[in-house]
Amino acid sequence: MKARAFAYVRPRTLEEAHAAFAAADGDASFISGGQSLVPALAMRLQAPQVLVDLAGVDALRGVHLDGDVLRIGALTRHADALTDPLIRRHAPLLAAAAPFVAHPAIRNRGTLGGSVALADPASEFPAMMLAMGAEMEISGDAGLRRVPADEYFLDLYQTAIEPGEILVALHVPAAGPHACCAFDEMARRRGDYAMVGGGLMAERDGDALRAVRIALFSVGPTPVRARGAEAALEGRAPDADTIAAAQRALDGDIDPMDDAEVPAAMRRHLARVLLGRLIRKLEADQ
Ligand SMILES: Cc1cc2nc3c(=O)[nH]c(=O)nc-3n(C[C@H](O)[C@H](O)[C@H](O)COP(=O)(O)OP(=O)(O)OC[C@H]3O[C@@H](n4cnc5c(N)ncnc54)[C@H](O)[C@@H]3O)c2cc1C
Fold this sequence. Notes:
The chain is an alpha+beta fold. It has 12 helices and 14 strands. The protein has 3 domains: 7-56, Uridine Diphospho-n-acetylenolpyruvylglucosamine Reductase, domain 2, CATH 3.30.43; 58-173, Uridine Diphospho-n-acetylenolpyruvylglucosamine Reductase, domain 3 (2-Layer Sandwich); 179-284, CO dehydrogenase flavoprotein, C-terminal domain (Enolase-like, domain 1, 2-Layer Sandwich). The radius of gyration is 19 Å and the shape is globular. The structure holds flavin-adenine dinucleotide. Flavin-adenine dinucleotide binds next to strand 2, helix 2, helix 7, helix 8 and strand 10. InterPro entries: CO_DH_flav_C, CO_DH_flav_C_dom_sf, Diverse_Substr_Oxidored, FAD-bd_PCMH, FAD-bd_PCMH-like_sf, FAD-bd_PCMH_sub1, FAD-bd_PCMH_sub2, Mopterin_DH_FAD-bd.
């Protein structure tokens, strides 16, 4: 199949981008890297009259440290998460997740903003926003607003972004000197969407872990915070008993569904195994 014919606009500012979207009377799509949208157009799962290309909007570019928060422009490419020195130093969980996202050709075009705006429940970066406690900066009619990751993911492919709004940047708390993190996923083949994956952020306090945040993906319609498992780890040294307690607690954190590829019971089992691996990775990297 081929995409339906569409008009194409390339605005230079947020104001122009909003105006172009409004002029299409709602029958428009923003496009960033096109790595999810273009296949959807080609299959006619989406057929907007107008594509509003965000690539020329400077406000969506750049990675800057602002105090203890790293501002990552929405147009930052997946590949930059692997190489950008500020991301590697201050958001190491993103750098750890990046090699697992698709393949190099897609990572060279796909953007962090596009991934987090789309919010595929099997995607790595949206869940890492939850694990890092990031805030999403969104531009809309009322100007700019920020939405914490805990309030951003609403349902399957549904986020706090309203139609016509633009994800401008991701604001990530910079990892402090005692921060530690781990990422892992289980996929049938490297580069495939994962059957289960997750990221863990924490602070080391002697042998104990504090400020633990764990987010899993491919376990439900949105990325999921594993709050029970976090509580089981909080303030404790991650020894074998604590890991087992966190794995038991994880059962109450997720409610995976059966699908044609992976039965729910298997996903639950894989999530427990994954959590154990994440915690042991933290210790191995000490
Ligand atoms: C073969 C293949 C394998 C893949 N494997 C993986 C994988 O393993 N893991 C993974 O996470 N992803 C995977 N992807 C998806 C890829 O990571 C996409 O790049 C990403 O999901 C979307 O980013 P994009 O910049 O390409 O967005 P686009 O495709 O341009 O846009 C995606 C959606 O987000 C909207 N949008 C884009 N930018 C903004 C913005 N700034 N504000 C508001 N809305 C916006 C668009 O309107 C569209 O609805 C794969 C893609 C392909 C083709």
